[in-house]
Each structure stands twice: as C-alpha cells, then as structure tokens.
Amino acid sequence: ETVLTQSPGILSLSPGERAVISCRASQTVSSSYIGWLQQKPGQAPRLLIYGSLRASGIPDRFSAGGSGTDFTLSISRLEPEDSAVYYCHQYGTQPRTFGQGTKVEIK
Amino acid sequence: EVQVEESGGGLVQPGGSLRLSCSASGFSFNNYAMHWVRQAPGKGLEYLSGLSSSGRTTYVADSVKGRFTISRDNSKNTLFLQMSSLKPEDTAVYYCVKGLGSAIDYYVMDVWGQGTTVTVSS
C-alpha cells in the first residue's frame, strides 16, 4: 500500500498569501496519478487537480507539481473561501490511498 | 449536471447488514467505473471499493473484504454497496464517487456525492 504523508498538518495564512502543501509517498508514484481534493466543513470532498490538470471550474490559483515521491499543491492569492482541508490522493496502485489532510486556515 | 446521490444509511446494530444505493444522473452511467469511499467521524478518507463500468472488474479493500460487496445496475443507473457483519468501526459517512473512465484503475475519481451516514451501535 502506498502511504501518503502530508505536511504541514495545519497552515494558518492571511488573505493574499500563498499556501504550499506537501505530500510525500512511501513509494514512487507517477505524477499522472496524483490528485488533490478540497473538503469544506460539512461538505463532500471536491476534486481540484488530477495529474497536471485542474478540474472543471477550479481557478488557476490552484496548481500542483512534483515527481517521484514528493508532490505539492500550491494555492496562490489565498481567499477566505479557500479555508478547508486539502487531501492528496494516489490512484496509480491499489488500494487507492489518501493523505491524512492539511487544514488551511485563513486569518 | 453530473450528479450522484447516496441513500440507505442509518443506525444498525453490530453484526447487522445494510445496503447503500447511489443514484446517478447527468452522464452515461454504463460508461464509467464507480467507487465507494468512507470517512469516519473527524477522520480522513478511506477507499473501500471500485467497480468497472461493465461490472466485470472489482476491487475491495482488505478492511472490508468478505463483508462488503459492490454491485451496479446499469439499467437503473444505480450503484450499490451491500454491507454485512457491521462493526462499530464501520461508522462513517459513505461517499459514492464517479470515476473519470471505465476501468477501476488509473482514472481519478471526479464527482462525489454528498454522502450517507452509517452508524453502527447497540
């Protein structure tokens, strides 16, 4: 099983700043099979990015990168609505796995 | 609009059974793999099971293997999760999720339902 470890656990930033979330895999994963999800309180997760592509309706403030075992999600020009928990996800090997989540707080 | 909607959750005693349903709309259901993911209270996401568009290929996580069975009825655009021998640790919100392709492997899960809550308690 591919374990995904995210850091930091909590990120507290001001509007307009940039958030960077790290996701480290226990074994090599093709970047094509890394996705990022956003979950707001009381809501279902929503797909943000898969591979190098943004899901429909996702603003270009969200971007992802990385390779091998290290991947990142960047959120530029933070807005209050970006307050949420973010999960990385790999779907290159079974079982599909998720990181433990990073909470982004907007001050 | 592409949508999936879960139903069938509720309170069940340990050892009991429950069948979850997921009704799909807005897309050609028989062309896409479907999946179940759960989230225990205050916890992260756990992948449970996937089923290919044809229904011929499945994956079931070890944590629920032998107790949970995924199935689909393409004529009714509906996905199911039959759960038996339920344990308190199965308490969670269960999400139905659409895959972006027909196979259970290598395609991201792109559309999530709102979830249905299962509580296993005496």
Report on this structure.
The complex is a heterodimer of chains A (about 110) and B (about 120). Chain A is mainly β. In chain A, about 0% of the residues lie in helices and about 50% in strands. Chain A has strands spanning about 5, 10-15, 20-25, 35-40, 45-50, 55, 60-65, 70-75, 85-90, 95-100, 100-105. In chain A, the strands form 2 sheets. In chain A, strands 2, 4, 5, 6, 9, 10 and 11 form a 7-stranded mixed beta sheet that branches. Chain A has a 4-stranded antiparallel beta sheet with strand order 1-3-8-7, with no helix packed on it. The radius of gyration of chain A is 13 Å and the shape is globular. The mean pLDDT of chain A is about 95. In chain B, the strands form 2 sheets. In chain B, strands 2, 4, 5, 6, 9, 10 and 11 form a 7-stranded mixed beta sheet that branches. A 4-stranded antiparallel beta sheet of chain B has the order 1-3-8-7, with no helix packed on it. Chain B has no helices and 11 strands. Chain B is mostly beta strands and about 120 residues long. In chain B, strand 4 (about 35-40) and strand 5 form a beta hairpin. Chain B has strands spanning about 5, 10, 20-25, 35-40, 45-50, 60, 70-75, 80-85, 90-100, 110, 115-120. At the A-B interface, strand 5 and strand 10 of A face strand 5 and strand 10 of B.
